[in-house]
Amino acid sequence: MEFSKEERAAIEKIKKLAKENKINISGGKIRRTSSRFCLGVEHGDYNGTELFGVGTDRFIWMAYKPNGTNIVRLFSGNFPKDGVVEFKPGNVPEPKSPDIAHTWARFPWGVDYVLRRAGHKLTEGIDGVIYGNIPGGGMSRSASLSLNLILSLFDANRIELKNKMDIVDLAQGVENDYIGSPCGKLDQIMILFAKEGMGTYYNPAKRSVDYIKLGKKAEDFRIVVMDTGTERPGLEKSTYKIRRSECEELVSLLKKSGYKISCLADIKKQKLCDEIIAKFSKKHTDLCQRLKYIFDAQQRFYEMLNAWKSGDIETVGRIFREDGIGLRDEYKISGPELETMCDIVRTIPGVLGERMLGGGDKGASGALVRPESVKAVRKAVDTAYPRSRPDFADKYAVHVCKIVDGVKVFNGLL
Ligand code: GLA
Questions:
Q1: Does residue 36 have its Cβ closer than 6 Å to ligand 1?
Q2: Residue 1 reports pLDDT greater than 90
Q3: How far apart are CA 219 and CA 238, in angstroms?
Q4: Cα 353 to Cα 339: distance, rounded to the nearest angstrom
């Protein structure tokens, strides 16, 4: 196995942290979970659309070993001030309680809570060290962590679930029901199922996943993530929550008016969409704008899939850009720093498309870029971003990502 320089450094860091904090992982395993990059429909998961995305090579690594007791002992290299988190499964703070708000321990506690609720009792404790390099906001750091903890604790307790979609539900449960974040399932699906070099397609009607290879004639491209250096609060404290409830409000309004739909994705015909907008936009301008984005993005989604299949990366990029403009102007879920990044890279030749990523407000934007233009993207961001956003001059970063497997386990490294 060839590790990148960064990955080797992460593993060394984990070993050092284990020693310093007396966490015994020697002879144990490392589970690596990826981040994800969504190609569509962004904000479609809780609106019932089909989804498409890839796993990307910014990761969370968890090194662990059963410790022969019934206590879980974990240390995070990203939150060293929290010290060693130690708890007995079954004995964790109440969901959404004030005790959990300010510590990363809410993730392992939440995992214990949802597993127990689903009837999986953890009897075997583990010692573990976690470290990650996924930027916050846009690349699904929290889903990657939840999945990693669930899979690692399942492994140590010899619990196997036949249906991987159940693991998606458990990981979503950690965030929805324990932490209180109203996320959908996009992140968990796009990480858990991700395969190197492949696109993951999810059909919500069948709860099924298929892999779609990029068409042979595709010209090479890079996925570039531009972390704005801003901090995104939990989705429960952001515009995300408001958008979700707006979409639900429109669905219930339409149902009351006799439309036979259960989510905005059910509005698939242009005629129907136009009729609804004509009827409701005077009184519910905002809600109709949200629908407009979801409707158009869903129409573009199929065009994007076909373009991906045939290797027409130019079209994939164009649609990514159009989605970004819809997210900015109709769904209104972007943020000023995210748009600064988009505006900076949009004019560079070889940038095929750019938009905000993920939950919104803050975090990271992304772009699809021809390999020969990556240098120009870095240069433009390095020049323009600190000028536009001096407060984040020391915090932003540009990541050039590869498409990778979502979950990998390594033995023999510790
Ligand atoms: C966040 C949520 C996901 C999804 C995206 C937007 O990442 O966790 O469920 O809604 O935002 O596509």
A1: no
A2: no
A3: 38
A4: 13
Q: How is residue 209 written in tokens? A: 């996943």
> Given pLDDT bands bounded at 50, 70 and 90, which one contains residue 136?
confident
Measured from the Cβ of residue 233, the count of other Cβ atoms closer than 10 Å reads: 14
Confidence category of residue 218, pLDDT binned at 50, 70, 90: confident
Do 75 and 15 form a contact (C-beta atoms < 8 A)? no
Q: Note whether residue 356 is domain-resident.
A: no
Average pLDDT, the chain: 97
Using most ligand atoms within 8 A of CB, pick from 36, 42, 45, 244 the residue to mutate for ligand 1: 45
- Map 58-121 to HEC letters: EEEEEEEEECCCCCEEEEECCCHHHCCEEECCCCCCCCCCHHHCCCCCHHHHHHHHHHHHCCCC
Residue 94 lies in a domain: yes
Handedness of CA 391, 394, 395, 397 (dihedral sign): positive
In the sheet with 364-369, reading across from the earlier edge strand, the strands are 351-356, 364-369, 222-227, 397-401
Residue having the nearest C-alpha atom to atom 2 of ligand 1: 183
User: Which pLDDT does position 4 carry in this prediction?
Assistant: 87
d(CA 297, CA 264): 12
The alpha-helical segments, DSSP class H, found in 118-181 are 141-156, 164-173
SS3 content of the chain, % helix, strand, coil (to 5): 45, 20, 35
Calculate Rg over the CA atoms of the chain.
21
92 pLDDT tier (thresholds 50, 70, 90): very high
Q: What is the pLDDT of residues 280-302, one digit of tens each?
A: 999 999 999 999 999 999 999 99
Which amino acid is located at 300 in the chain?
A: R
Distance 14 CA to ligand 1 centre (A): 29
Atom number, ligand 1, closest to the C-alpha of residue 359: 11
For 309-329, the pLDDT digits (tens) are 999 999 999 999 999 999 999
| Position 159 in a domain | yes
Overall number of domains in the chain: 1
Q: Is 86 part of any domain?
A: yes
C-beta atoms surrounding 260 within 10 Å: 7
| Burial of 153 from C-beta contacts in 10 A (0-12 / 13-18 / 19+) | buried
Is 184's C-beta closer than 6 angstroms to any atom of ligand 1?
A: yes
The CB of 110 under 6 Å from ligand 1? The reply is no
* Nearest atom (ligand 1) to Cα of 138: 7
- Residue 190 maps to which CATH number? 3.30.230.10
